[in-house]
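Lecture notes, unit on binding sites. The following record was shown on slide 14. It pairs a sequence with zinc ion.
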Amino acid sequence: MRISVRLSLAAVAAAAVSAAPLAAQLPASNPFAAPSPLQYQAPQFDRIKDSDYMPAFEEGMKQQRAEVDAIADNPEPPTFENTIVAFERSGQLLTRVAKVFFNMDQSNTNDTIQKIKGEVAPKLAAHNDAINLNPKIYARVKALYDQRDTLGLDAESKFLIERDHLAFVRAGAELSDADKAILMKLDEEESTLTTQFVDKVLAATNAGAVVVDDRKQLAGLSENDVAAAAEAAKERKLEGKWVLVLQNTTQQPVLASLTDRALRQRVFEASVRRGDGGANDTRPIVARLAELRAQKGKLLGFPTYAAYVLDDEMAKTPQNALKLLTDIVPAATDKANGEAARLQKQIDSEKGGFTLTAADWELYSEKVRKAEYDLDQAELKPYLELDRVLQDGVFFAANQLYGITFKPRPDLPVYQSDVRVWEVFDADGKSLALYYGDYYQRSNKSGGAWCDSFVDQSRLLGTRPVIVNNTNFTKPGPGAPALISFEDATTLFHEFGHALHGMFQNVKYPTFAGTPRDFVEFPSQFNEHWALEPAVFAHYAKHYQTGAPMPDALVAKIKKAKTFNQGYMTTEYVAAALLDLAWHTLPPDAPKQDVGAFEKDALERFQVALAVVPPRYHSTYFSHIWGGGYAAGYYGYLWAEVIDDDTWSWFKENGGMTRKNGQRFRDMILSRGHSEDLATMYRNFRGRDPIVQPLLEERGLAAPKKK
Ligand SMILES: [Zn+2]
């Protein structure tokens, strides 16, 4: 996961300083008033106080407004310098404070920060809108866009004009005033409906919790889970009963343990019925959102809403995304059918006397997992000591591939005493970047793992990357080693892949930091592969006391476990991603849809209607696409995985972990940000477009049958 705190493209198009008199509105005692004097403008955590944020935000917005007004009102005709570059330079104070603030909001928050966030978020949204919708700025950008081939610009500068122009067009800058008003209405309605959707799904999920009267029915649950169910009942004033709370996905974790089949079916039914009728019916919202998004796509000049969204992604068109997903369907469903047969065998061997349903999948696949794939974490962990995984694994692999080295910088201030800082050096000994690691769980830190930056690289602004990784590993007691799971080790490699993308970035313009959703997980997922590369693994997976290497039998188990249940997991994901695209490729003149009928038809049309493998989310509770930012974008996770596995296959074809291969990948992908078309960038690196075969092999799925 990568949490991005970037402001909108146009606004982060950070910048500044053109007019120096603006600079002195904040007292010099405010650490954001000027660029940090520390190396690479590292944040002055020894000086920053919570009370510094709001004044810096206010002043940062004020400065950028003035900077943008100066560009808009410039009496000179537009030039690349006085418009596009001036725009890139604007908003540097705002960027400085926003970078630190939103990082602290994620990893070291408190009540004051929460309160500031509530106050500043709507102000930032309004600030961005005012810039993105400024017609005078757009007129200048448009004039430059029309002359872009005759301005004598280098490729990166020309691409910047195209990106800026596109950002305005996508926000509706080309529309007539009447159409702008329609767009604004559609946006407002969409925003209201998505909020309603989220509220209703939450209510439906709460209402769908399953009440159990008889303790015996809970057989299979651990004592802890039973206690949690009793506690949930108490909270609902149902003392003496048990309540099984629903999670957001179709499958429910509790189904992996419940041995009472009738209760399994009740839980499963409760899950899939969420939003499908009743007091929290989301179907009218789904149908209307699909309709209004199709209208919005048309208004902005696209045949469908998905065509509008994907035009700005690496995939470019819904056809490309659909092709990728449907190319995977035969292998994924074949494998899932094979897994279903294995589960049925398990049921039969226990004389279960019934046919497998979706409600039985988790329980029986857990039994098969234990019998055939079980990894005992207690056995593994002594070989996975955090510092060793980090320095002898993650850093070691990066050194082998890219030649970089790491030097601790305990002299630089941190926001929390567990945070560590390294300076990163290139193969030629030149300093490259700063890297912060915040690895331990805390009560004031968000869950999960992510990568972010305090400072982004830009040659225009003369900034170097200051990157941070966050994870949530349990902090060991004093003197005890931090032993982690193999999944945690993989997470370290993953987040460091994002960090490498940030640290190697070598672009001129700030706008080029940050890549679209279907690309951003590519460098991180790719970096995970090195966790199991034999030379890397042998270098870090050593017993923390004896230094002995991990026994081969354990290593073999780790590798085998990677392909467990992949038929199911791939199919449920692909089914949901296809549903998303089906909804968002409805033409603008389509009638309002019957949600149930539409979904059934789409799953059948794409040949993913497996009774025992339902979509990961049904339309009525698919919050990624109706409530979150993933409309027409859910495919992106798998798209990035296809590219990362395809890249891995390139390394294997070309001699694996060598400096030469690493350098090529760095030069052609990791250093480029979004400074050229991403599909072209990838094609230049790989020599062709990505194919799905390497992913099928990595996931252990059979090759697709010939039609
Ligand atoms: Zn990630």
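Take-home: DSSP finds 28 helices and seven strands in the chain.
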